[in-house]
Amino acid sequence: MKAVAETLDVARSNLIDRLAGKTKPRRRYHKAQDAAVVPLITALVTARPTYGYRRITVLLNRQLAAGGTEPVNHKRVYRIMQAHNLLLARKHADRPGLVHDGKVVVMRSNLRWCSDGFEFTCWNGDVIRGAFIIDAHDREVIAWRAVVNAGISGSDIRDMMLEAVEKRFGACHAPAVIEMLSDNGAPYTAKETRIFARQLGLKPCFTPVKSPQSNGLAEAFVRTLKRDYVRITPLPDAATVLGLIAGWFEDYNANHPHARLKMLSPREFIAAQSATA
User: Fold this and answer.
1) What is the pTM for the complete model shown?
2) C-alpha distance from residue 70 to each of 18, 24, 53, 56, 125 (Å)
3) Residue 44's pLDDT is what?
4) 244: exposed, middle or buried (C-beta count within 10 Å: 0-12, 13-18, 19+)?
5) How would DSSP label each residue in 215-266?
6) Where does the signal peptide begin and end (predicted)?
7) CA-to-CA distance for 91 and 245, rounded, in angstroms?
8) pLDDT tens per residue across span 188-218
């Protein structure tokens, strides 16, 4: 018995109790305070069914902080969600081997903006197409446009660029040159758009041909938009959806926890950066 205990690195008394059947079976660990947060977690998962346990933890701790309650560890939230079958289903698909041909992320805001388009279909067949501008550092969606059963035009892109500059700087010209990264779509590469961009203080940059992943940050936002908003929202017709899109972007900017921003939303990250500047 001594040799077995030393090999397993356990106490001999423990082995004796196991052989005698005196040990108690291990049960699922839980805290008495779990009952208080279970309904909060359930409500959050119901409202945001595409969020994993880490983002649910961020939203839960925002609520708890507002009520003057101590925050909850993400491991505890995982355990509670696992016990109540609230975790997201695991995906087992292999990731494609994409080659990244350009550095997108930058070290501070207003050095590089990224732009891309999105498209989805309403239940009645109406097609919504849109475009947006997102900052490559703080991830805030600065401006966007959406149209119904039509394509985004060069005029839409130019209006969006002007709106982005005015929102960020309160003027019609950026104080320093900002790279404007996009794909090679006609609305972006049009001569009028390139000239207008330079007049605003923007430097047009384009991804290599057949390499959309070079604008991966914008591509990632499109996936987030479709996963966390489009797919879980009723889309009866274009009129209804157009009334929802502004709220989607506002919710993303103000509330969406971002892993690359230390689980802060874009607006929270910008406020934190301003406070330390």
Assistant:
1) 0.81
2) 40, 33, 18, 16, 48
3) 94
4) middle
5) GHHHHHHHHHHIIIIITTS----HHHHHHHHHHHHHHHHHH--BGGGTTB-H
6) none
7) 28
8) 999 999 999 999 999 999 987 655 556 888 9
